[in-house]
């Protein structure tokens, strides 16, 4: 199994930036699509970004397009989420996961979820 550990969250003012990291154990990281999701208190987990196994294509939720960038470094077994122009609405726990197939923006298409990292954006 692949185990994910998210880090890089914190408190930031609106308009600021953060870079999240997702470190994966094992050798199976390479060859899989990876995704970032987020969950605010009392709300369902929602799709944020996806990167294909080759790193050639990326996909984003409309709410973060133009502000967030997903990238990967398979040599380091790490996926990143660069977040710029942060808004209070971005406040949530951010999770990364490995895609197993199916609809790329559905949580059911991923496994090996991490424990998440908290991002709080103040106004």
Could you outline the blueprint of secondary structure elements for this entry?
Layout (H helix, E strand, L loop, with lengths): L3 E4 L2 E4 L4 E7 L9 E6 L6 E6 L6 E3 L7 E6 L4 E6 L8 E8 L10 E2 L5 E6 L1
Parallel strand pairs: 2-11
Antiparallel strand pairs: 1-3, 3-8, 4-5, 4-9, 5-6, 7-8, 9-10, 9-11
Q: Which structural traits does this protein have?
A:
123 residues; seven-stranded mixed sheet; 0% helix; 47% strand; globular
Structural write-up:
The protein is an all-beta fold and 123 residues long. Helix content is 0%, strand content 47%. 34% of the residues are buried.
Helix and strand content put the structural class at mainly beta
Order of helices and strands: EEEEEEEEEEE
Helix percent band: under 10%
What's the β-strand tally? 11
Low-confidence stretches: none
Terminal CA distance reads 40 Å
Cα-atom Rg, whole angstroms? 13 Å
Major sheet description: 7 strands, mixed
Residue-averaged pLDDT, rounded?
94
Q: Using the alpha-carbon principal axes, give the shape.
A: globular
Strand fraction equals over 45%
Helical element count? Answer: 0
